[in-house]
Prior knowledge:
The protein has 17 helices and 21 strands. The chain has helices at residues 2-28, 49-63, 98-116, 160-172, 175-179, 213-231, 284-323, 336-342, 384-395, 427-432, 442-462, 517-522, 527-543, 559-569, 586-599, 610-618, 637-640, and strands at residues 33-38, 71-76, 86-92, 123-127, 130-135, 149-152, 187-194, 200-207, 237-240, 244-249, 351-354, 358-364, 370-376, 405-411, 414-420, 466-468, 477-479, 485-487, 494-496, 502-504, 524-526.
Amino acid sequence: MIIIMSSNLFTALVVLSILGFLSASVEAQAPTYRYHFCSNTTNFTPNGSYQSNLNLLLSSLTSNATRDIGFYYTTAGVQGSTAEVVYGSFLCRGDLTPKLCQECVTTVAKDVVQQYCPLGKIAIIWYDECMLRYANQSYLNRMDEAPRVSMWNTGNITDPTRFTQLVAETINGLVAPASNEPSGAKKYATKEAAFNGFQQLYSLVQCTPDLSSTSCVTCLRGAIAQLPGCCTGKQGGRVLYPSCNVRYEVYPFYTAEAATPSPPPQPLTLPPPPPPPGNDKISSLIIVAIVVPIAIVLFLVGCFFLRRNARKTYDALQEQNVGNEISTVESLQFDFATIEAATNQFSLNNRLGEGGFGEVYKGTLPNGQEIAVKRLSRSSGQGVEEFKNEVVLVAKLQHRNLVRLLGFCSEGVEKILIYEFVQNKSLDHFLFDSDIQVKLDWSSRYKIIGGIARGILYLHQDSRVKIIHRDLKASNILLDGEMNPKISDFGMARIFGVDQTQGSTRRIVGTYGYMSPEYAMHGQFSEKSDVYSLGVLILEIVTGNKNTSFYQSDRGEDLLTYAWKHWREGTVEELLDSNLRCSYSRNEVIRCIHIGLLCVQEDAKERPTMQTIVLMLSSYSVTMPLPEKPAFFLHSKAELNMPSVASGSSYQPTSSSVSYSVNEVSITELFPR
């Protein structure tokens, strides 16, 4: 009897010890970092008011992380005071206990300021267990789909067609239950589905609780639409938005106690009878009673470590893929049949317009998402190299003032780019169409100028690689439903190295009138080339005139000459589009003309940087230098008898030059600093 009790006690102790070890291992597992985004355009001064308020905000988020809802939004600082207000929130995965939620938020709050975004006013960071976000503007109740992050498990799935169908059915079925949760409740849903006899599919969707049901549905539908592009054929995938996220795996990555019933309890088994008196050997039943539980526990331990190692492999490989998006561009590929069906066989009724390299069509994907399809013409000058260039570039870019690439198609001679659909047409349609010019009021124009400038600043400074657009013009600026500008058409763009300031080419491509002189004459391009193009664009927006329209007039001068003469004569307000004469901000108009002329100066070194331009547009306390003579400055043709230059995307300049003698006069700024 003593031997039996000792054996059972020993077995129980072994089981309890190992289970305790497993429990301790799970509890001690630190939150797993996935991705972060910091905006370098808005950094705060160390030890200033913003940092002080940020520290208060992070402390408040951490202390409120035990709330049952797993979400909290708050602010730090007093609006209207000199101190800068900080807005922030966290979202924990719906299955987390308050304790685990607080552990994750505490970890993220420390890491975000110490490791990932030490000086950024705007930051968002994702861990497996939670997300933390803060900004210098309120975003409560607002659905944000950028920045967007796509991730996938590196393991391939067997029978990908059936698995993809199961993923679509399962994860789409979670949208309604998650979005229909009442205000103030978790907008979160999970589901398990059997894939085969050996694998289960685990799916999860979640929105931030501040979203309305409609916004939650829109956000989740948009995220789910990204899964086929990144994760087809993979054992797991996820898409992360600031306002929602979706994920699926073939292993349980969340606690599923309610969804996965516990196995029925085993019937009680009576202990074996004691051995006969005098028998000092342990019976075979006793040995089985000892060995079997230990074997089961060891098997469970092995499974635990195998699964944990599998997750580590996924983590390491996935972080590498996220950090190098160029290697994942192929995951954005659509098949031609899908695009053909979306555009109704490229119907003329779906045609939106024609760009420099082909036609653009409106389309609708099977999930209802509207898209813009850029079908490159077979005779287009944009070959495979430019096509891949645009895919690689735009896939890396995430900014509200840049058009978003959703995917591409390359089958045979077909080269197609799939973009987000932007409701309104391009900027030139609003500026130069006499029937609708009056609809673009001054406040909209000023907003458009600021948005374009911020988009170029992102390309030059804040994206992961420095990008020179090289073809900035009114027809490449799209306008969404709220008249926010989105820069498009990156076929001519170039990537610069970190320390590279200038590039050169023998192939001069672009649009006449927007090209800087150093690029048009010598093939040299840099950030200042885009600055020049922006200057021309600003003057077009203010005046409502095309930069080339003056050549067809009797004045025989270009837009830059026309603007410069009015600047010199102190009559800059006469440049303003006649449709705006009744309602405009005089200071803003003069400031924009001033900035436009600074941008088009002949000496590239004298042109301001994009960071300075954004600052000049947003602050009246910035002192701006006086502009010098713009490039290609001409008197009338009658005075100089200059031959006209044919417009085109490529030409060979002559070696002759013309010298000018202009009497310089002083210029007084027309607005208070």
